[in-house]
Amino acid sequence: IALLEEQLSLSDENNTDSMAGISASLQFLDKEVRKLWDLSNKRNKVDIKKLKENTELINTDLNVLNEEIGQLKELISQTNKEVDFIRKLNNQSNKDIDNLKRKVDAGADIIITQFFFDKDIFLKYRDEVEKAGIKAKLIPGIMPIQNYKRVKNFSDKCGTNVPDWIRKEFEGSDENPEIQKMIGSSIATDLVKKLQKEGVNEFHFYTLNKYELSYAVCSRLKSYKKFLQTKNNKDKGEIRI
User: Fold this and answer.
1) 23: which of 41, 52, 131, 189 lies 20 to 30 Å off by Cα?
2) Do 174 and 182 form a contact (C-beta atoms < 8 A)?
3) Over the stretch 200-213, which tens digit does the pLDDT of each residue have?
4) Residues 224, 228, 232: CA angle, nearest 5 degrees
5) Cβ-proximal residues to 117 (8 Å cutoff; 6+ apart), any chain
6) Distances (CA, A) of 63 to 59, 60, 67, 69, 190
């Protein structure tokens, strides 16, 4: 019995030592796991932050891209409208030229065009007139814009194309007529200068019975003398320089 008790005692001591070792190992492993978890968590936070920043950059780029796509769609739409307008203009052109030739043959010696805002439209028309053998003097009609909505309404009714860039120039100026006059004066002046470079030396201004803006355009073009000679015609609704 004494021997058995001694063996049981030794067995308890060994078990105690074994359990103590296992407990120490578990505690060590727990500490190592916690270290690894803490290290991984810190790295994950850095990665998550970088990922969030990259995502924000991508979203910003996508927003810019969407905005550019929208602008491109608007540009394509406007281009299609202008192409359609030119196509209709070409279809009508031959009939207009034939009618014009008949008028000149009947005695007309001066041709004043409808107002326009694109010099290329006038230059193309001039080429067609020359090609048809029409010898009458061709004078471009210039409309300085004093009121954009009013001129746009005229343009829609008579089939004159108002480029989209002109619409953008007048955005936000509906309540400020003086600003509209400044913009209109600048557009008309630039158009005349472009035509002068193409050899055009006479112009007909549509004043709509308000000569002041045409006067300002002529002043900017340093056409004081010629303008003053025709100033008495202001009440007739036209000025020619």
Assistant:
1) 41
2) no
3) 989 999 988 888 88
4) 155
5) 143, 160, 161, 162, 163, 166, 187, 191
6) 6, 5, 6, 10, 36
Residue 40 DSSP label: H
In this predicted model, what pLDDT tens digit does every residue of 59-106 receive, in sequence order? 888 888 888 888 888 888 777 766 665 666 555 667 788 888 889 888
CA-closest candidate to residue 71, choices 143, 164, 156: 164
CA 84 vs CA 3, 78, 111, 161: distances in Å = 115, 10, 26, 11
Residue with tokens 């910003």: 60
Q: What is the dihedral of CA 130, 133, 135, 140, to 10 degrees?
A: -30
How many Cα atoms occupy the beta-carbon half-sphere of 24 within 13 Å?
6
pTM, two decimal places: 0.55
- Residue written as token pair 């406007």: 78
What is the Cα 180 distance to its own chain's centre?
Answer: 20
Distance from the Cα of residue 40 to its chain's centroid:
50
CA 190, 194, 196 angle in degrees (round to 5)?
115
| Pairing assessment for the beta strands 204-206 and 238-240 based on DSSP bridges | antiparallel
CA distances from 105 to 63, 92, 133 (A): 61, 20, 11
- Torsion angle, alpha carbons of 186, 191, 192, 195, to 10: 160
